[in-house]
């Protein structure tokens, strides 16, 4: 049985983003302005009041912005999967059935894994002594999401014959390597966010307005990077487990 190497999978994903950075920028030239506008809209209306008892403007803007951003991430991912796996460079503003299916499957993965997590969080609120289960639970959930996400590249390619059960079967026996992929993936994204926040904070100490503008740009840029990087990771896993490719 072939053994997945987490460092090789992650380095392959990073190398994909770096090697094909021109394609990444071509996609980003459309979506970064959209993400900046969404961020600006949330700044202008303010953050939703967590104690509000009525549906207000900021809450509506937050919901609409989140929905649009979710579709944007799905569009970016579908374009990237198809480019890496099929060398297809379509329009960057792709909004078709594959994108909607991708968004729906991504949401389904979050719900399948997220609902049990929320229930366990409620249990720890009621029984604080069980707080120690949160770390292993987070690691388990992250690994499950990584395994189930092997289906997403198939969705991007328009395949309707590849199910979550098939993704689960394809990754069977690879729990620990997938855990390694999840941890390395998370470490890189968190590290990038910390470096970005540090840079934005330094700009903000010089000029507050410049800092806010830099934060808008940085948030959009990081969103693009995360979408591309995660898509690259799932593409690498799909290629390894489903198409028997080597890194």
Structure notes:
With 247 residues, the chain is an all-alpha fold. It has one domain. Helix content is 78%, strand content 0%. Helix 5 crosses helix 8. The radius of gyration is 19 Å and the shape is globular. The model has no long low-confidence stretch (mean pLDDT 89).
Key traits:
247 residues
Q: Structural class given helices, strands, pairing?
A: mainly alpha
Report the biggest beta sheet as strand number plus sense, adding barrel if it closes: none
Q: What is the number of strand segments?
A: 0
**Percent of residues in beta strands:** under 5%
Query: What value does the Rg take, in angstroms?
Result: 19 Å
Give a nutshell description of this structure.
This protein is mostly helical and 247 residues long.
Topology, please?
Blueprint: H1 6-19, H2 21-45, H3 57-86, H4 97-126, H5 134-148, H6 151-156, H7 164-170, H8 175-206, H9 208-241
């Amino acid at each position: 049985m072939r053994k997945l190497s987490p460092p090789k999978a992650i380095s392959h994903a990073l190398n994909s983003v770096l090697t094909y950075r021109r394609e990444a920028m071509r996609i980003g030239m459309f979506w970064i302005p959209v993400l900046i506008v969404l961020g600006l809209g949330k700044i202008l209306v303010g953050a939703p009041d967590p104690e509000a008892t009525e549906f207000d403007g900021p809450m509506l803007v937050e919901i609409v912005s989140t929905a649009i951003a979710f579709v944007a991430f799905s569009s970016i991912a579908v374009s990237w999967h198809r480019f890496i796996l099929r060398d297809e460079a379509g329009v960057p503003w792709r909004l078709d059935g594959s994108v909607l299916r991708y968004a729906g499957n991504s949401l389904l993965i979050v719900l399948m894994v997220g609902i049990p997590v929320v229930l366990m969080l409620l249990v720890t609120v009621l029984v604080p002594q069980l707080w120690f289960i949160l770390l292993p639970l987070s690691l388990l959930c992250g690994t499950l999401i990584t395994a189930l996400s092997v289906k997403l590249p198939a969705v991007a390619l328009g395949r309707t014959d590849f199910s979550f059960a098939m993704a689960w079967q394809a990754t069977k026996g690879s729990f620990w390597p997938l855990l390694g992929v999840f941890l390395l993936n998370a470490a890189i994204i968190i590290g990038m966010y910390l470096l970005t926040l540090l840079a934005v904070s330094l700009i903000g100490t010089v000029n507050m307005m410049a800092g806010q503008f830099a934060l808008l740009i940085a948030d959009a840029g990081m969103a693009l990077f995360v979408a591309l990087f995660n898509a690259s990771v799932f593409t690498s896993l799909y290629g390894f487990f489903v198409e028997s490719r080597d890194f």
